[in-house]
Amino acid sequence: MPTTYQGSADLTTQSNQFLKIYAPGAFDIYDASTPALGFLRKTFNHVGSDFNVTINLSFGGGRGFGSLPTPSNWLSERVSFARKKAYYRARIDREALMASKDGGAVRELFRQIATVGPRAFAGMIEYALFAPYATNGSNQVVGSGKLGTLTAVSGSNPYTCTLGNDFKAANFEVGDIVHVETGNSDLFEVQGVDPDNSQVTLFRTSGTQVPLATDEIFLENSEDLAILGYKSMTDFTSGDTLYGVSHQYRFAPGAYVNGSSGDLEDHILDAILEIGETTGEAPDKGYISRNRWSGLAQAMDVDKRYNVAGPMRDIKGHFGFKGIEFVHPYGVTMLHLSRYQETDEVELINTRRQELKHARGFGWFRDSGSIFLTRPDDDELEVRYGGYPELFSIPTYHGQIHSLP
Description:
Layout: E1 3-4, H1 9-32, H2 35-38, E2 42-46, E3 50-56, E4 76-82, E5 86-93, H3 94-99, H4 103-129, E6 133-135, E7 141-143, E8 146-155, E9 159-163, E10 177-180, E11 188-194, E12 199-204, E13 216-219, H5 230-234, E14 241-242, E15 245-246, E16 255-258, H6 264-279, E17 285-288, H7 290-303, E18 324-328, E19 331-337, E20 346-349, E21 354-359, E22 363-364, E23 373-374, E24 380-387, E25 389-393, E26 399-402
Parallel strand pairs: 2-21, 16-26, 17-19
Antiparallel strand pairs: 1-23, 3-4, 5-24, 6-7, 8-9, 8-13, 9-12, 10-11, 10-13, 11-12, 14-15, 17-20, 18-19, 20-26, 21-25, 22-24, 23-24
Helix pairs in contact: 1-4
């Protein structure tokens, strides 16, 4: 286990300077660098081993006119879940840090640490929000940790791995450590990403596993251990349990609309109205992929379905749209782009009814006074960023349009 270096006050001083200058900005990257993260409500006061709360799934009881009705109970369920462990971890050349005596060199090193770590962590959390639906052997919904499925492999360490329709370049970063195949613990380093051919280059750093077509790729140590995501709500299926609660009326996706034919705009409206029929309110955000954004923006321009704000004398020529608002009887749903979203799906999310619960102590790990931790077997330092979150929501407030062509 790395321990905080205590032999030099210089490291502690460097750590304090880093935290003073860069810690607030690092949190901003995690909290609001993309729409999906910015509109995800986060709290940092989750205490205890598990989160337990009673939720109401009906508003019934004894109701009637004319005379006193017969009393009865409304339906409620007990929700329970544990936090997950979410980390970013990187190595730093100790010699470079100790030799960086002038302010410019130190600031540049600090800037890189403060930017790369939180951005990598934020990307991992957003990836998890749009990760595939998964259950364990007990039919409990879990965070899959899955990055994609291989369809072809060539080469021999390094391996050139081609992925299927679930390939998303945003899921992979050069330097990531991954596992290949369900239940396998051998380590592979991502050495290249080729978005044009849906390929990643993997180099095995431990074990003897050889990647094969149909194998799945997982973030290191993350299989079935990631935080729950939006698809945990919108793909929730009969026979499974979520937070220990079974699939049932008012604890099921508010809408699950087949979009294989027809216009996307019609499917969005159908889903919103279906959710509103059950909950009395509608999703305020929708997340779409790049190709869906392009299609909707083009349709808006062709049909001239947009508003011109301000007096005509202030109009300037421009192309494109900063945002797409979908207006309906329950209000407005703003559609946003996420590079982690599946191309054939749209997630409709009620952000007022979701919360990413963190334990206290989120951020840079500095339990002994410094964020710079020594490693036992080399002359490098280590930094860690992260904490212990889990997503909590009731699936009925959200919906999905799936099977889009």
